[in-house]
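Review the following:
>
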Amino acid sequence: MKKLFVMAAMLLSAMGAMAQDDKPAVLVQQFTNKSSGKDAVANAVQQSVVSGLVGTNRLNVVDAGTMTDLPTVKNDLLVYLGDNGIGWLVEGILNSVSSAHKSSTVSGKTTYYYEGNVNYTLTLINTETGVTAISETYTNSSTGDSETEAITAAANGAKGRMERFVQNNFKVEATVKALDEVDAKKGVKTCYINIGSNMGVENGQIFEVFGQIQVAGENVDRKIGEIKVIEVVSGTMSRCSTKSGGPAIKSAFENQQKITVRSRAKKDILGGLGNLLN
């Protein structure tokens, strides 16, 4: 009974902090180790994932490793999380761990080192519907002076994957709040959108702009341009420059057409099965 009270108190405390903003809440489950490697490697990958998710400043992240006596039956866990305002569950599986002793010769000098590889799968589940939003498998590789050092570095590489993971699965949506600089021919040069630091918006972030049109009696979003954040003005406002579609954005705004701004998905140049070298 005492353990249940402690768990509830911890979760309520976390949810109290989360209630102060509109960021999605995510629980990162303890990783399942299906590899021949030690559980410490699975734990290291999990902590790297947690650190990477927190670092995006886009989510409220709860580490299952800090909780006790969470429901063990999956459906019960989803209901429990949903009831407590946590809309997403991240499951992780460590599939394999490997290492190899290698050498490199440069200018007649041979250097010996270890290469470590970790392969893992992340599954994102909506706690309200129980539907899997995405399941991706990654392989991270890194080197070190010892086998342990190389594998640890590869495990820590999961952190670098999380920005793309969040960008692709938790798109920020907003609208154009006001026009700033407008050119008669080039249209909107700069404008303000109604999101800022509260949602983790940063300078340089790219957003796609959509205008709503009617097609066969249905409202359809059509991409009309792209904008880039040049100044995060406040927690709820950012100033952006227009990358493309200045005239179309100007026309849509002046005609009071519904405009939606969405964060652009980031591409992982290495691909889901690629290597992440540290």
Q: What stands out?
A: The first helix runs from residue 2 to 18. The chain has six helices and 15 strands. Confidence is low (pLDDT under 50) at residues 1-10, 15-20, 269-278.
